[in-house]
Amino acid sequence: MGDTTAIPLEGWYDTIQGDVYTLLESPAGTNRVRKAVIFFIASLILLNVVVVILETVNSVYLEYTTFFHVFDLVTVIVFSIEYILRIWCCVRNPLYSDPVQGRIRYALSPYALTDAIALTPFYLPLIIPIEFRLLRLLRLLRIFRVLRLGKYSNAFEMFVSVLRSKREEIVITVIMAIMVLILASSTLYVVERDVQPEAFGSIPHAMWWAVSALSTVGYGDVVPITPPGKFFAAIVAISAIGLFALPAGLLAHGFADAYHSMKHEHDTDKTLTCPRCGAGIDRRTGAVQETQKKGAEKETHEEMDR
User: Fold this and answer.
1) Rounded to 5 degrees, what angle do the CA atoms 79, 81, 83 make?
2) Contact call for residues 51 and 71 (beta carbons, < 8 A)
3) What are phi and psi of 273, to 5 degrees?
4) 103-128 pLDDT, tens digit each
5) What is the pTM of this model?
6) What is each CA distance from 199 to 20, 196, 219, 223, 240, in whole angstroms?
7) What are the phi and psi torsion angles at 271 (to 5°)?
8) Region 258-280: what's the mean pLDDT?
9) Rounded CA gap, 206 and 199, in Å?
């Protein structure tokens, strides 16, 4: 996500801007106030998702319409203030240090765009008259607020980093799946089109069967009935197991690597190195790590022998 260390500046304006940046953009463990801000925003996002889901139940929506509107107004005010403050203080990040272009780049970043999309259902009807049914559909865009939780989750950041590290392998797997999909649907089209023209009358029609077979779902609404079609369908079903196991294995390996890397960084942060002997010292207890302690004692004895 890039370096989020605030740029040191002087003056009361810059001090306030730096404090706001620390509250909104610094790591979760910076201080208790930052933790409280994250907890409040995350809780508000989850409540918004629950409200959006309940609004789709007509009986509940009609009975609690006033509550839903008031709750929406309050959350829009909170999220709007947060959005404006993020745009204002983003220049403290070295990546967005330019007062104009930096703020524009930040506004076009994925997280900022998600915030803007989630606020659209409230502000757009104030600018453009919208029919009531379309307005209710538009209000479903508030569900995008759940994506903001990724900003406060280390697990989500790990997931994104794993996808980036394995993107080449994943792309190759997707290309292979598309090739198998086209081959399977084309073959079933040739074999089954004469006996089942309504289900396999074209390659796009046959793709529905291929998708359900390759995904190992197998709805059963469309099935081959000719002997060659059944034989080929069996081959496709068996090959689909390995086709879907491959990306699962890639992601599992990527998560294992990311976890070990994160654990190593965490253990490193808890250890200080003695400038004289090079031994590792635990920050919390002050104890010398055993493996390094023995090495340090050996080096000390060697120096004494000399």
Assistant:
1) 65
2) yes
3) -110, 130
4) 999 999 888 888 888 888 788 888 88
5) 0.58
6) 60, 6, 14, 9, 21
7) -120, 135
8) 59
9) 7
Residue 192: other Cβ atoms inside 10 A? 26
Strand partners, 281: 272, 288
Strands 271-273 and 280-282, how do they pair?
A: antiparallel
For the chain, list the domains and their CATH numbers.
12-152 (1.20.120.350), 167-269 (1.10.287.70), 271-305 (no CATH)
DSSP string of 272-287?
EE-TTT--EEETTT-P
Which of the 8 DSSP states describes residue 271?
E
289: left (phi over 0), alpha (psi -120 to 50) or beta: beta
What pLDDT was estimated at residue 267? 58
Cα 38 to Cα 150: distance, rounded to the nearest angstrom = 11
Do residues 192 and 201 make contact, with C-beta atoms less than 8 angstroms apart? no
- H-type helices in the chain, by residue range? 12-25, 32-55, 58-63, 65-89, 101-107, 110-127, 132-139, 154-165, 167-192, 197-200, 203-214, 227-269, 290-305
Closest by CA to 1, choosing from 80, 98, 106, is 106
Phi-psi category of residue 2: left, alpha or beta, with phi > 0 → left and psi -120 to 50 → alpha = left
Dist. CA 254–CA 265, nearest whole Å: 17
Is there a contact between 149 and 161 (Cβ–Cβ < 8 Å)? no
| Mean of the per-residue pLDDT values of the chain | 78
Q: At residue 204, what is the residue type?
A: P
SS3 195: coil
Amino acid 87: pLDDT: 93
